Amino acid sequence: MEAPRKNIVIPGPLISNIFGKLDEHVKLIGHTFNVTIINRDDNVQIMSNDTTNAGVEKAEAALNKLMLFAKKGDTITTQQVSYLIASLMDDKNGGFDQIEKLGDDTICVTTAGKPVKPKTLGQKKYIDLIRNNTVVFSIGPAGTGKTYLAMAMAITAFRTGQVNRIILTRPAIEAGEKLGFLPGDLQQKVDPYLRPLYDALHEIMGPEAFNRNLERGLIEVAPLAYMRGRTLDNSFIVLDEAQNTTPQQMKMFLTRLGFNAKAVVTGDITQIDLPDEKQSGLTEAIRLLDGIPDIGISHLSSRDVVRHPLVQKIINAYDKQAARMAYKDKRRMRYIRKPSVHSDKK
């Protein structure tokens, strides 16, 4: 029985973008769906490596979707192909058909001319929540774009005159490192905590515009402690690494909100660095505030990771380990017997 195969036509100028460097994109598709993909004079053949047709159909769907991206002028990345494949394999809510719309939502353009867009459906929902709510919490693992997209939205609101100031803050909690003996004043000591925020601003806004607005007080990057006692009007405020706030700090931050202000709170509840197992202000806030109008909560997952594909695998491995430990703890608790209460009366 001849193995199933399919032919599709891909215009020559799009081939290199779709196939990727050293054909890495089609190799990834072929390995996932157990097919071989060959280009012969713009006539791309998809041949099954077994006798089933399912892999051929999925590979064809993936290539057709990539062709739509390429025709729009998007530079296709390995991360984009990986996300496309994952969506195709687990298409419960019709997400695969919505992916092509991601390229139509440009948040802003960096000084280098690079458009900033959501790269996953989870990121798209996150951006829409920011647009439609005053306060948004974004919870997810590293690499999901929580902070970067919030910064992009803040800069867009600033550039278009929706707000007059951008305020970026983080709790100065040490993740195992000791910075107390570093030279310099307090601001210089906490700068290492704030460096990721500076980097994002420099990339999107450009160092000259950033420094100019920083000197004028229109951009403020400061530790969370500096927010106490203030009312933040006409501002876009981003609280990063919020899993390391205490409940008191989180309440203090949220009650700083003034008129015509918007706040985005980001964090990863699997990386809490608070000492002595203190409760995280982020976990308490999303429990208390869920369901309140004008407050949005975005839950990003490993599928929304836009860094190296290996990061997604690392996150999944740690998540599985955490689930195993939670299961073992639950089983152990079942065997802990409560002390019996006996009466001394005779």
What can be said about this structure in brief?
The protein is α/β, with parallel strands linked by helices and 346 residues long.
What value does the average pLDDT take? 85
- Structural class estimated from helices and strands: alpha/beta
Alpha carbon gyration radius: 25 Å
CA(first)-CA(last) distance: 87 Å
Report low-confidence residues grouped into runs of 5 or more: 175-179
Categorize the overall geometry. globular
How many strands in all?
A: 11
Total number of helices: 12
Helix and strand sequence: EHHEEHHHEEHEHEHHEEHEHEH
- Report the sheet with the most strands, covering strand number, pairing sense and barrel closure: 6 strands, parallel
Strand neighbour order, sheet with most strands? 8-7-9-10-6-11
Topology summary:
Elements: E1 5-9, H1 12-19, H2 24-33, E2 35-40, E3 43-48, H3 54-71, H4 78-89, H5 95-98, E4 108-109, E5 115-116, H6 121-132, E6 135-139, H7 146-159, E7 165-170, H8 186-205, H9 207-215, E8 219-223, E9 235-239, H10 247-254, E10 262-267, H11 281-289, E11 295-299, H12 309-334
Parallel strand pairs: 6-10, 6-11, 7-8, 7-9, 9-10
Antiparallel strand pairs: 1-3, 2-3, 4-5
Helix pairs in contact: 2-3, 2-4, 3-4, 6-7, 7-8, 8-9, 10-11
Structure characteristics:
single chain, 346 residues, alpha/beta, 6-stranded parallel sheet, 3-stranded antiparallel sheet, 12 helices, 11 strands, 15% strand
